[in-house]
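Async update (no meeting this week)

Hi team, since we skipped the sync, here's where things stand on the single-chain job. The sequence we agreed to prioritize is pasted below, unchanged from the tracker. I ran it this morning and attached the output directly underneath so nobody has to dig for it. Comments welcome in thread, and please keep replies under the output.
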Amino acid sequence: MMMRLANPFVLPAVGSLPALSRRVLALAAMAGLSGCLFYSHIALDIGAMPLWLFAGCLYALGVGLSAAVILAFLPGLSRFIAFTALSRLGLALVAAQIPAVASLLISTPALNATLVVGFALGLQQIARVQPQLARGVQRFALT
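Output:
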């Protein structure tokens, strides 16, 4: 369903967007915050933009686009994608508190991906035992 805006420079209120768009925006925002937190300890600029902001924008763009494609064609994976975003954000919060962990996760992408997916699988297993957790994560992801 295509929405046509009267003024292309004014975004509609988030509540008026379809559920898929709200979910993708929430996942992209969580990924952007995760990227900012992962790189927050590095004092480096790319052009006039700090690295943490550049990484956050790149994470939001990459995860947002991939989430949009996956949720459009494989809607059954929506709960797992929400768990993945939640585990990525949790890992980024730990990395922001402990710079040595952040350096290790940034320098080893395979470890980062393994931990994110492993924690997401763990959350999925917990949600099977405690269904109210899954409902809370879906509300958190603005479904």
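Quick observations from my side:
The chain is about 70% helix and 5% strand.
Helices lie at 19-38, 51-73, 78-97, 99-107, 109-129, 131-140.
Reply here if anything looks off.
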